[in-house]
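Suppose you are handed a protein chain with no further information: no name, no annotation, nothing but its sequence. What can you learn? This example shows the usual starting point.
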Amino acid sequence: MFTTHFQMTRHPFSEHTSVDSLLRDERVSQGLARLNYLLQHGAIGLVIGATGVGKSSLIKLFLSQLSSNHVHPAYLHLTRLSSTSFLKLVVTALGETPRYTRERVFLQILEKTRSLEMPVLLVVDEAHLLSAGAFTDLRLLVSNALDEAPPLKILLCGQEPLREPLKRTCHADLVHRISVRYHIPPMDRDQTAAYVDFQIKQAGGDQKIFEPEVKSLLYDHTRGIPRQINNLATACLIHAAVQNAQRINEAIFQATLAEFQLP
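A reasonable first move is to predict its three-dimensional structure. Written in structure tokens, the prediction is:
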């Protein structure tokens, strides 16, 4: 494997990586600031971004920083369900066995969140796949006017299509309760270069493996989307290792790009 060829300790551009291997750039810092505000003062938060832009990495970093003594997190990403099935999944994420009827499941969530001595943060990833009924149910879970401090906070995280259902009049009450909004952008050219260097360094490799002009080309062809950078940079590493090359220059990049664009 190319990791041996380049004397790396691990894959530098793996889709699944540890929290320590996540770059905390300006985009991430802006996102974390808003999510921390949600914990302190908000009820519903919204994170939107293109596929592969780093939404899951932001969530992973955010959850890793939470104190188990101050907040109870529950994470869901299986969202393409009926509203009733989704509510049951929420109950399961809270460590309970769902009751038999929809009404009892709904009450079960409210009872569980109020019984804890700390707020519950429900993170709903892939929120653009939620049904209209699920959006309404989430709004009802946080809309009790008698709660001085809502025991349940919700973070909706999804791709760009998430904007569309939130524009509907029927979801206006939900939108009005969104305390923080963050659109996570792609990396710029400098951030892309820093990202490549960071990942190579974290894997124990030489940061000079990718020549400067190649890092610029990576940005040109991926538009700063981290997942696409990962895929193209990995393909370059494989190509270079097969050629027994120690540096990835423009020639290797262009040869890799031609192969990478195959269906």
